[in-house]
Write a structure and sequence with these properties.
The complex is a heterotrimer of chains A (822), B (281) and C (164). Chain A has 822 residues and is an alpha+beta fold. The longest helix of chain A is centred in the C-terminal third of the chain and has 28 residues. Helix content of chain B is 34%, strand content 25%. Chain B has a five-stranded antiparallel β-sheet. In chain B, strands 11, 12, 13, 14 and 15 form a five-stranded antiparallel β-sheet that branches. In chain B, helix 10 packs antiparallel against helix 11 and helix 11 packs antiparallel against helix 12. In chain C, 37% of the residues lie in helices and 14% in strands. Chain C has six helices and five strands. In chain C, strands 2-1-5-3-4 form a five-stranded mixed β-sheet, with helices on one face. In chain C, strand 1 and strand 2 form a beta hairpin.
């Protein structure tokens, strides 16, 4: 199949070329880079304060146990140790870490003390903290703390966890089920009744460790009753409110600063126990404290991502038209519910239908407690899981019907003329053009040629087979309309704030509530403001990430910064212009209605030479000698934007893999991503986001997995075991765009932070399965390690189902295995 | 993570180094490049009381020609070994395998002797030295390669014995060679590796020597395959047939990166490939 | 405590250090050279890469005492923001960084790569950077940046050819 009606490829989807003077749309080099490439960066661990003490945490080595005795006296007596605190020492003040998303009224929400008091529930849970003169002394003292544990049954398997008679993660709750959340639309049973084709599959989203390159770090100072906390966080604003709530420190006495933050990917969208404890220790000791985690510590203690068992049923007609989809999920919460843990899988509830039309849909998700590190947001958060599910199922449907996978998609997707489209899950997709993105991707990929090569390799029985994987995805970005969040019982809104200050000199300060940690806001926001205000890019400075500087905000996650925060900035700029227009009219002795604003200058229509620049107006407002009646002497403005709808980026990703059928090794031969993220502020940044997203999605497909043994020990505690791909493991990507502007915001932007991650995982797995389908393989569990590919092949050839799960970790060669076994 | 405390000495004579080790009474550890040791120290998987830094000992440096063999010094870094003209001429298999060890920065610091003394069966060099019948020269004696690797992370070195270098015979000069390393990511340890040397005559394999990485608690020779290909045709079919015996006598581990069963399978596939590449077919 | 004499970015330092002090902590905590960050504890990530006598090393896997008598170059020794090293400039111009945490190590590893091979192919660049992990960029723009820097540095060394 290669023909898509050319008329479907509407001309307007070609990415727009901005005019030479416009900042928006321009591939501006980032202003952030100057400090990052020279090492003049303020990572949290770089911060030094007078009298700074260092904190280290002792963590549980057992997945589930009662703490029967803690003896910290030897540790307290060690040289240079200022304090050792246990959960019992902190019990009166440490509170319980917050979960802001009670997804059902009867959701089971256990207490979550930052430091365990009498029971530990996952390996890596803090049990004590040492404060010492330096980081070496702090770590040394950990070994002098003596703790007796009485082991309890470890709950490690989700499916067994919800059976009767299994041990309980939280005995007082009487169940390992946190919640069951359901959604239904249309008549699923009717759709499945007498359906000519029903496909049922079970897929596992393995557990992932987000692995931001910067490990977490916290610095906290207490001066009188004023507290300043620096943290490697994505969410200074939410963190401030939550820390105040947990500790009782009044919010207005607490300042939270996210300095330079080295990536997050959701892992720093959290209120961590270590942050609470550092605050409490600084308060207790009256001295500033610093804690910086090691990677092996972080692998256990940073929240994990994904971990979901999906049971999917798809009903279709023989022509490939989807009748209905049933989704039944088990989602691993880990041992506790953290900030948005229970809501993450539910973000997928609205995405399992993907870009397709169907008559009926049902979704059911059960949140399950296990004795593992809590899960929470990881790049994509719920949407990669859903996209994987539907895109794998579409390939299975194509195989069942003997159709090309793109053809079966074409028969089901929403046609470009059908937008806006109300989906079966109740969302309104405002814009998109799946035909155009697909057509472009196929051309760049040379789809027909690769299919021909595939056929040739099959004919020859080449031991290296070629597979082609398709992923035609959409996602919901711009989290989120507050009314929607409210209807989903989320604890807060989804607006974003921006303010714009026009200084007397005409220079501009933009304050944003988004909190960038690598995304390039300082550049992109300046582009938006420069355009709206007609000032030079260089005259705009963007401030963020400090609750004293930027008091209002909802921070950065869920590809929301541009679609929500960028629009807030856009609106704030317009308010500046409105104010300036009034002032300019006054200065020009003209009617406001007769003024034109262009290129940063107000001019009177039809009267050349009668003009005032924004800078002149700002200075006049500052001087305040001659103001319009009732005009406050400032152009400064602010705006809070609450989106009316999500935005829906989409795209077509095509992946070709070479699968060595003798070893099971998978090599990506080529990868084409055509994304439609709406209007683009900075194509350089957008491309970078796509590249990085692809790498992470591919890594889920091929390399990464947090592996626990039967006792609940994490065996992938180091980077030698948890395999993050390097440059040598990844291909060169071909990326391109189509452009259908979002209709729900004035910038026309949709968001791009997660698109690559969401789309790529199923593209890769579909490609692997496509390569092996002639051998009878219809699935390879992720990550598709060489051994799993080999086993899938062997099982298919012997007519047996391959065993799921991971090989039992055991002693082997190499550092990682030594570490894992210890 | 941060290592537990230890003392540190950097002796300038071999005698002083041995004395320091002896005085440490089994609690000493030789520090060469530290690229295997440092992660173990940082993860607190090792608690030596004293590190004896042997970087100051001239006996351990460089690569030298010694008649019918070359001697690769224990302190020769991977970077030096890969580029050394003597190694390239007489032990290109070693150069090839060394170039797959870890990554460039680690190869700058990591040493030939350190990798061998660490005796990690997942390390790439032990199988190579075993395959080449290297002779381990220590401060006290000479140890044939087959006796050097005692067990998982355990060499035959006594607590007060220092590896000075390895004598590699020039016997294999001109032989076809290949190191076939199979790993999940570029940085990852070998799931299985195959070190292979072949001598061809008239389209036949006269001799073959094969060593396997990570197929047991020590590197192992695939004797059965060596025998099976000897005096046989240099063809892929012949190699594949012979390589079926590659797992014979091995006891591979099961770990995160592969089960024992998979490793046995890989040993067969990779051995056939290594033979083919080494033989140039 | 052992005494060390180390030259870091052109400045000589004499210090008494604990034997176990990691070079990276010596740089960061004792010398205030915080431009070199730490990303792991198993020498996998390469964020802490510096040059030691011109060769790349992972400063988390070198003891400060092992640096005694040696020269260390960190990213801070390359350029000062006004006068960037061509590699730094190339990372900026090719958008080869996002969060920037891996960047100092990546730049140092890339310089080492070019020391060995002034005109590497994309594949050689990828292989040469296998010891440095980045979680943001997918590496594509890093590869471009290294190639761009390589071109620029070669031309700078051979101005006649560059003009012809």
């Amino acid at each position: 199949m290669s023909e898509i009606a050319p008329e479907a490829v509407a001309e307007q989807v070609t990415p727009s070329t901005p005019d030479a003077t416009a900042e928006v749309g321009r591939a501006r080099l980032r202003t952030e880079d100057a400090r990052l490439i020279t090492g003049r960066t303020t990572w949290t661990d770089n911060i030094q304060l007078p009298g700074l003490l260092h904190v280290a945490f002792l963590r549980s080595p057992i997945s589930h146990a009662r703490i029967t005795r803690i003896d910290a006296e030897d540790a307290r007596r060690r040289p240079g140790v200022i304090a050792v605190v246990t959960g019992a020492d902190l019990a009166g003040e440490q509170g319980s870490l917050p979960c802001a998303w009670p997804v059902t009224e009867d959701m089971v929400l256990p207490d979550h003390p930052p430091v365990a008091v009498d029971e530990v529930r996952y390996v890596g849970e803090p049990v004590a903290a040492v404060v010492a003169r330096d980081r070496y002394a702090a770590v040394d003292a950990l070994e002098a703390i003596d703790i007796d544990y009485e082991p309890l049954p470890a709950v490690v398997d989700m499916e067994r966890a919800i059976e009767e008679g299994t041990g309980l993660v939280h005995a007082d709750k009487g169940t390992n089920t946190s919640y069951t959340w359901v959604f239904e639309a249309g008549e699923p049973d009717a759709a499945f009744r007498d359906a000519p084709v029903v496909i049922e599959r079970r897929y596992v989203q393995q557990r992932l460790i987000p692995t931001a390159m910067e490990p977490r770090a916290v610095v906290c100072s207490a001066v009188g009753d004023e507290y300043t906390l620096w943290s490697a966080t994505q969410i200074p604003h939410i963190l401030r409110l939550m820390l105040a709530t947990v500790t009782g420190i009044p919010e207005h006495r607490l300042r939270v600063i996210a300095p330079d933050v080295g990536g997050g990917f959701g892992s720093k969208l959290q209120v961590y126990g270590e942050e609470v404890v550092c605050l409490l220790l600084a308060r207790r000791l009256g001295r500033p404290v610093k804690w910086t985690e090691s990677r092996s510590e972080g692998n256990m203690a940073v929240h994990h991502g994904r971990d979901q068992i999906q049971r999917l049923s798809l009903a279709a007609d023989r022509d490939g038209r989807i009748r209905g989809l049933k989704v039944d999920l088990l989602a691993d919460m880990g041992a506790y519910l953290m900030l948005v843990t229970p809501g993450i899988p539910l973000l997928g509830a609205f995405m399992f239908n993907g870009i397709y039309k169907m008559d009926a849909y049902s979704f059911r998700c059960t949140g399950v407690f296990t004795n593992k590190t809590p899960t929470d947001a990881y790049r994509g958060a719920g949407r990669p899981e859903a996209t994987f599910g539907i895109e794998r199922m579409m390939d299975e449907l194509a195989a069942e019907l003997g159709l090309d996978p793109l053809e079966v998609r074409r028969r089901n997707w929403i046609a470009h003329e059908e937008f806006p489209y109300d989906t079966i899950s109740g969302l309104t997709y405002d814009s998109g053009n799946y035909e155009a993105a697909t057509e472009k991707a196929m051309r760049l990929f040379d789809y027909d040629k690769l299919r021909a090569e595939q056929a040739d390799r099959r004919d020859r029985g080449d031991p290296v087979q070629l597979g082609i994987g398709v992923s035609t995805f959409t996602e919901m970005c711009g989290l989120a309309p507050s009314r929607v969040l409210g209807s989903l019982s989320y604890g807060a809104g989804g607006w974003e704030h921006a303010s714009v200050r026009v200084l007397p000199s005409g220079k501009v300060e933009v304050v944003t509530g988004s909190s960038a940690h690598g995304q390039g806001h300082e550049t992109a926001w300046a582009q938006i403001a420069a355009d709206r205000l007609g000032v030079p890019f260089e005259d705009v400075r963007v401030l963020h990430g400090d609750t004293s500087v930027s008091p209002k905000g909802m921070d950065t996650y869920g590809s929301r910064s541009l679609a929500v925060g960028g629009v807030a900035l856009y609106n704030a700029c317009d308010k500046v212009v409105d104010k300036a227009r009034r002032m300019a009219a006054h200065l020009l002795e003209a009617d406001e209605g007769d003024l034109e604003f262009s290129g940063g200058s107000f001019s009177v229509k039809g009267v050349p030479g009668q003009a005032r620049t924004l800078q002149e107006v700002a200075l006049a407002a500052f001087a305040a000698h001659d103001l319009p009646e009732g005009f406050e002497p400032s152009l400064d403005s602010e705006a809070t934007h609450d989106p009316e709808n999500f935005s829906f980026p989409h795209g077509t990703h095509l992946c070709a893999v070479e699968v060595d059928t003798e070893t099971g090794f998978v090599k990506i031969r080529s990868y084409v991503a055509v994304d439609d993220v709406g209007k683009v502020v900075n194509p350089l940044i957008v491309e970078g986001q796509v590249h990085g997203g692809l790498a992470q999605g591919i890594a889920q497909a091929l390399y990464e997995e947090a592996v626990y043994d039967a006792d609940g020990n994490l065996t992938t505690t180091t980077m030698a075991d948890y395999l993050v791909p390097s440059a040598a493991d990844l291909p060169t990507f071909t990326t391109d765009r189509t452009e259908t502007p979002a209709t729900t915001n004035p910038l026309g932007v949709k968001g791009v932070g997660e698109a690559g991650t969401i789309a790529s995982t199923p593209a890769v797995v579909n490609a692997i399965v496509d390569a092996l389908r002639p051998y009878g393989v219809d699935d390879v569990p992720m990550p598709c390690t060489p051994e799993r590919v080999w086993r899938a092949l062997r099982a298919a050839q012997s007519g047996q189902a391959p065993p799921g799960g991971s090989p039992e970790p055991g002693a082997g060669g190499g550092l990682g295995s030594a570490g894992g076994a210890a | 993570m941060i290592p537990a405390p230890f003392d540190y000495v950097r002796p300038s004579t071999l005698n002083d180094a041995v004395t320091a080790l002896r005085e440490a009474d089994e609690e000493g550890k030789v520090l060469a490049g530290g690229q295997s040791l440092m992660p173990l120290l940082r993860l607190r998987l090792a608690y030596p009381e004293v590190l004896i830094d042997v970087s100051g000992l001239p006996e351990l440096r460089g690569v030298r020609d010694d008649g019918d063999s070359i001697v690769v010094g224990a302190m020769a870094t991977h970077y030096e070994v890969m580029r050394d003209p003597l190694v390239q001429a007489h032990a290109p298999l070693l150069a090839a395998a060394t170039s797959t060890v870890a990554d460039p920065a680690v190869r700058h610091r990591g040493t030939f002797g350190g990798s061998l003394a660490h005796a990690d069966p997942a390390g790439d060099l032990p199988a190579v030295v075993l395959t080449m019948d290297g002779l381990f020269v220590t401060s006290a004696r000479e140890i044939p390669a087959r006796d050097f690797f005692a067990d998982y992370l355990t060499s035959a070195l006594e607590p007060d014995e220092i590896l000075l270098g390895v004598r590699l015979p020039k016997t294999y000069t001109g032989w076809g060679f290949h190191y076939e390393k199979f790993h999940r990511t570029a940085q990852a340890w070998a799931v299985v590796g195959v070190a292979c040397l072949v001598r061809r005559t008239d389209g036949e394999i006269a001799h073959a020597r094969i060593g396997l990485t990570n197929m047991g608690s020590t590197p192992v020779r695939a004797y059965a395959v060596e025998t099976a290909v000897a005096d046989g045709p240099a063809s892929r079919e012949a190699f594949q047939s012979a390589a079926r015996d590659a797992p014979d006598g091995t006891n591979p581990p099961s770990d995160l990166h592969g089960s024992a069963e998979y490793r046995r399978h890989l040993a067969q596939v990779l051995t056939a490939r290594a033979l083919a590449t080494a033989a140039g077919v | 405590m052992p005494h060390v004499s180390v030259d870091v970015d052109g400045v000589r330092y004499e210090d008494e250090v604990e034997a176990r002090l990691l070079l990276t902590h010596y740089l960061r905590d004792r010398l205030g050279k915080v431009g070199t960050p730490i990303g792991c504890d198993t020498s996998n990530c390469g964020a802490c890469t510096v040059l030691m006598d011109g060769l790349s090393v992972k400063s988390c896997s070198v003891l400060a005492v092992q640096a005694d008598g040696h020269e260390i170059t960190t990213v801070e020794g390359l350029g000062d923001g006004q006068d960037l090293h061509p590699m730094q400039r190339a990372f900026h111009e090719e958008h080869a960084l996002q969060c920037g945490y891996c960047t100092p190590g990546m730049i140092m590893a890339a310089l080492d790569l070019l020391r060995d091979n002034a005109d590497p192919s994309d594949e050689e660049i990828r292989a040469g950077l296998e010891g440095n992990l980045c979680r943001c960029t997918g590496y594509q723009n890093i590869v471009r940046a290294v190639r761009r820097a390589a071109d620029g540095m070669r031309q700078a060394e051979r101005p006649e050819e560059a003009r012809s």
